[in-house]
Amino acid sequence: EVQLQASGGGLVQAGGSLRLSCAVSGITFDDYAMSWFRQAPGQGKTFVGVISMNGITTVYADSVKGRFTISRDDAKNTVNLQMNSLKPEDTAAYFCAATYRNSAAQSPSLYENWGQGTLVTVSS
Known about the structure:
By secondary structure, this protein is mostly beta strands. Helices cover 0% and strands 51% of the residues. It contains no helices and eleven strands.
């Protein structure tokens, strides 16, 4: 059974930082590109960033570039999202997702495996 368990969300003031983690089991982790998406209330899932299978390549949405960093630890089967300089507009549920051997995937429809989401609230 494939499981993605996201954690680390919470309430933070604007300008602050949070680190999200996603623990993955049930797949051969290094065969999968890993992404983070977010979903604000009343909206669909939007791409935040992706890290390639070998961890060398990362791509970010323009809205988070320079503030967010994705990393992965293949020994622990985890992917992390370091979020700095948070803004109120970053408030959303954040989801980790895995896609088989497609490091360019930015559309939610390309991801077969999803975590349950962790809520990030940024106050002004």
